[in-house]
Design brief:
Elements lengths: L4 E6 L2 H11 L3 E8 L2 E7 L8 E6 L3 H12 L5 E4 L3 H10 L4 E8 L2 E7 L5 E6 L1
Parallel strand pairs: 1-4, 5-8
Antiparallel strand pairs: 2-3, 3-4, 6-7, 7-8
Organism: Priestia filamentosa
InterPro entries: Glyas_Bleomycin-R_OHBP_Dase (IPR029068), Glyas_Fos-R_dOase_dom (IPR004360), VOC_core (IPR037523)
Protein name: Glyoxalase
Length: 127
């Protein structure tokens, strides 16, 4: 068994697609109608057959409440692995991404946290 799709709640699918593809550099894999919304997934450009990230609309009240509460508490919705946190931090800062935590060494891991502009905090980590 393996993880094939994981989801993240987003306030606006179009805005999220733009941020995750153009700013972060993920590659759109699926974008198909699903009722009034769309099934939009992205993958890493380095692993296009790997785990897909689903941009899930937060239309359900429980989803909106969950998303808001973890954001307000400063809890990242998910974590992405990077080769060099400092380099990625600099690249994203140059694109106007707002960080809530600068690169910080915690044991054997270096972490940073940014706002995805779609209602989530995202953590990047280098092992």
């Amino acid at each position: 068994m393996k993880i094939i799709v994981t989801s993240i709640f987003v306030q606006d699918q179009d805005k999220a697609l733009e941020f995750y593809s153009e700013t972060l550099g993920f590659v759109k894999k699926e974008d198909v109608p699903a009722g009034e919304f769309r099934w939009i997934t992205l993958v890493s450009p380095n692993d296009q057959d790997g785990t897909e990230l689903l941009l899930e609309p937060n239309v359900h009240p429980a989803a909106r409440e969950y998303q808001k509460k973890i954001f307000d508490e400063g809890i990242p919705a998910t974590m992405f692995g990077v080769t060099n946190v400092y380099k990625e931090y600099k690249r994203l800062m140059e694109q106007g991404v707002k960080f809530t935590m600068e690169p910080t060494k915690m044991g054997e891991v270096i972490l940073a946290v940014f706002d995805d502009t779609c209602g989530n905090l995202i953590q990047i980590a280098q092992k």
